[in-house]
Amino acid sequence: MGSTIMYMCVLAEDHNKMQEIVKIVDSCEVGKWLDGEKLKYEIGLPKYVIRAVFEIYEAKGYGILSKTIGSCLYMGKA
Fold it and tell me: I need a surface site. Which of 18, 24, 44, 52 has the fewest CB within 10 A?
């Protein structure tokens, strides 16, 4: 699901905003939690887009996405 959302965002969303979220997640330190709710306001992207980025990074083994219902938290592990 995350990759489909990312594909649509590349086509329709602000390129600078997308680069910013990828940069933030890419540089997430091991053990540090990123809060998608806060990032939503800082970057100006919908939470589901931020969650999609978190899902992709988790699928690649770079971090852990919180499984708590309604949350949008990601912790770096690589």
Answer: 44
